[in-house]
C-alpha cells in the first residue's frame, strides 16, 4: 500500500468512530433535548434527504472537475455541523453527514489500485473496528463529550486528504454511458426504505422494548460491529470463490429471515444475539457490492454512479425514520420490522434477476 492509498483508507475509516457512537447516541441525545420519537424520526429523515442530494451534486462535480477538492469541502461542512450539534442545535444534524466524501474517496482509491476490492475490504474492516471503539464511548463519555470528540476526528480525516496527489483531472461531459448498469442498482431503493424504518431507531427500539439504557446497549453494538469487522474482509475472500452476486444473495437471505424474528425476541439477551447475527450477515457484503459498482462503471463516471445509487437508496431511506417513529410513537414496536423484511426480500429477488448473469 502506497502513501496515498494509506491516507485515503485511514481518512475514510475514521468516520467509523462517529458511526459507531451515533448509532447509539443520536436518537437518545435528541430525546434528552426533549424531542418526541416522531420529531426525532423527522430530523433523521431530513438529514438523509439533504445529505443524499448534495452528495449527488458533489459526485457530479467531482467527476467533472476532480474529486479531491470536493472531498475536502464535504469534510469541512461535516466538521462545522458536528460542532453546532455539540452546542445543542438538533437541526445541525441534517448537515453533519459526509456529502459524497465516501463516493469521491472510493473513486480516488479505484484510480490508485489494480485491486480496489481488497482495499475496500480493508477499509470496511478498519472502519468497523473503529466503530467498535465508537460504540463503547457511551460507557465513558456523555453525549456532548462524544460529539466534541467527533469534531476532532473529522478534522483528522480532513487533514489526511490534503496531502493526497490526484491524477484524475475531470471530464466535463454530462453523458452517462453506464446509465443502463446504474439503473439495475435501483434495488437499493427498496433496501433504503426498509432500512430507514428501523435501523436508525434501533437504540430507541431497545430502549422502548426492554427499557435499557445507552450504557447497557453499548457492549451489544460494539460486539455487532466487531463481528462485522472480521466478516467484511471475509466476504471479499468468499466473493472471489463463489462470485459477488451469489455472496450477496446468500448472506442477505439469512439476514432477512432473522429480521422477521427479531421483534418477537422474549428478552434483551435474545434480541441482542439476533441483532448481532443479522447485522453481520446483512452488512458484511458492503465492500463486495461497492466493488461491483466500480467494476461495472467506467472510470470517469464512478463518482456519479456511486452518487446516483446512493441517492436511489437514500431518498426512500429518508422517509423510513418518520414512518418507524410514527409506529413507535403509537407503541407498535413490531410492524416496522415486517415492512422492512418484506422490502428486503423483494429487493433481494430483483437483485438476483438483474445480476444473475454477471460474473
General description of the model:
This protein has 359 residues and is mostly helical. The chain has a single domain (3-164, 178-355), classed as MFS general substrate transporter like domains (Growth Hormone, Chain: A, Up-down Bundle), CATH 1.20.1250.20. It contains 16 helices and no strands. It has helices at 3-13, 15-32, 37-65, 68-86, 101-111, 116-136, 143-161, 179-184, 187-198, 202-210, 214-242, 244-261, 268-283, 286-296, 302-329, 335-355. It starts with a helix and ends with a helix.
Output the CATH homologous superfamily: MFS general substrate transporter like domains
* Strand content range: under 5%
Name the poorly predicted regions.
none
Per DSSP E runs of 2 or more residues, the count of β-strands stands at 0
Q: What is the global morphology?
A: globular
**Gyration radius over CA:** 19 Å
**Oligomer state of the chains in this structure:** single chain
CATH architecture title: Up-down Bundle
Which series of helices and strands comes N to C? HHHHHHHHHHHHHHHH
Sheet with the most strands, sense and barrel status: none
SS field, number of helical segments:
16
- Determine the structural class based on helices, strands and strand pairing: mainly alpha
Q: Could you say what the CATH topology is called?
A: Growth Hormone, Chain: A
The top-level CATH class is Mainly Alpha
Helix content: over 70%
Distance from N terminus to C terminus (CA atoms, Å) equals: 27 Å
